[in-house]
Design goal:
Elements lengths: L2 E6 L7 H10 L3 E7 L13 E4 L7 H18 L4 E5 L4 H12 L3 E4 L19 H13 L2 E4 L2 H11 L6 E2 L21 E6 L8 H12 L4 E6 L7 H8 L6 E5 L3 H9 L3 E4 L8 H8 L3 E5 L2 H5 L6 E3 L4 H12 L2 H17 L2 H16 L1
Parallel strand pairs: 1-2, 1-4, 2-3, 4-5, 5-6, 6-7, 8-9, 8-11, 9-10, 11-12, 12-13
Length: 364
């Protein structure tokens, strides 16, 4: 008889690698995903079940209350052996309360800016004092807490005054679909790629300014993949910088089709102001693409070993580092080899096993 695992938080269910991980975990556990947002049960894989709040329009507070009672009902009539919460609020808060009351161990997985903030763009949980206190309360009381990167972990420790152990479990991918069957050599003109939705936290402005400087030295193109939430501001900037002829805006691309873009790229640019990890960086490394960007998320953890990083907003430094890398084939090979080694050793299978080991320890 399989033990029961309650996975709380529907936000992560939109991430393809997360759904694949749940499928693997379901080989060992009876998995049910509980979501504070409506999820069509058709979105579930056959291996696990989904229970979500109704899709009817309702006040946020009422929705959170309904979510709480949905979980409480399950804990009474079919109690889980362990609860896996995605982020801290509302899922982690609800999970911690129910875990304490029903004596069920709770794993809280930090996923975003729970302990971070970028005041200039009003981004991050710590800018809201109430949310900051709730996040700290949840992190201190969960049976176990995981972070995606050392970068994220250090933010949480510093900004929330957390001293408890936090295990780092990066979100892995299945690298097979990203592998290329060609020599990993730079194209002419160079092919730059970015995969990120358009939002101030992703800071495409820094990317375009760096690319403008790069174009002064080399012939290149830049492909931008991602949903636009900035009402054409980035496209306008490309025209203002007079680089719009070298920049292509692909818009939203379904994840099933994204690997083809990585396979055609030479250099991946990622200039975010903050990242908890950045799964696109991992996907790029899996395809043998050179990664250059800002010192955040997984790029901060792997800086100078698997990728090249500069401080946030430093477009001139980024351009200089990229141009230097273009002229150093030995450095290119070193970065590619180390990146592929990291991707393979931190694959989706590795991530899944880390959580299975953690569940087993807590249940014992």
């Amino acid at each position: 008889m399989k033990k029961r695992l309650a996975v709380i938080g529907g936000g992560a269910h939109t991430i393809p690698s997360y759904r694949k991980m749940l499928k693997l975990i379901a080989r060992e556990y009876e998995v049910t995903v509980f979501s504070e947002f409506y999820i069509d049960k058709k979105a579930a894989m056959p291996e696990y079940a989904i229970q979500s709040v109704s899709g009817k329009k309702m006040n946020r507070r009422i929705r959170e209350l309904v979510f709480f009672f949905l979980l409480a009902k399950t804990c009474v009539f079919k109690p889980p052996h362990i609860i896996h919460s995605h982020s801290t609020y509302p899922s982690g808060f609800v999970a911690t309360l129910l875990g304490w009351f029903f004596r069920v161990p709770v794993v809280v997985c930090l996923d975003a800016a729970e302990g971070s903030g970028v005041p200039e763009i009003a981004f991050g949980d710590i800018l809201n004092q109430r949310r900051k206190k709730v996040n700290a309360w949840v992190i201190k009381r969960a049976a176990a807490v995981t972070a995606l990167t050392q970068f994220q972990k250090e933010d949480v420790r510093r900004n929330l005054a957390i001293s408890r152990p936090i295990q780092i479990i990066s979100r892995g991918i299945d690298p097979v679909g990203y592998m290329v069957n060609r020599p990993l050599q730079l194209h002419t003109p160079l092919r730059f790629l970015s995969v990120a939705y358009f939002h101030p936290v992703k800071d495409h402005e820094t990317m375009l300014r760096a690319f403008q400087l790069i174009l002064q030295k080399v012939d290149a193109t830049l492909m931008l993949v991602g949903q636009d939430y900035m009402n054409g501001h980035i496209q306008e900037l490309a025209r203002a910088l007079n680089i719009d002829q070298q920049v292509t805006f692909a818009g939203f691309i379904p994840h099933d089709s994204i690997a083809a873009y990585y396979k055609q790229a030479d250099i991946f640019l990622h200039t975010a102001r903050f990242e908890s990890q950045a799964i696109a960086v991992v996907e790029a490394m899996a395809a043998g693409v050179l990664v250059c960007g800002t010192h955040v998320g997984i790029m901060a953890d792997l800086s100078n070993k698997c990728c090249i990083t500069v401080p946030v907003k430093a477009h001139d430094q980024l351009a200089n580092h990229v141009l230097q890398l273009i002229d150093e084939p030995a450095s290119q090979q070193r970065l590619r080899s180390a990146a592929l080694e990291w991707v393979n050793s931190h694959s989706l299978t590795w991530t899944t096993q880390q959580y299975l080991n953690l569940y087993s320890e807590l249940i014992k």
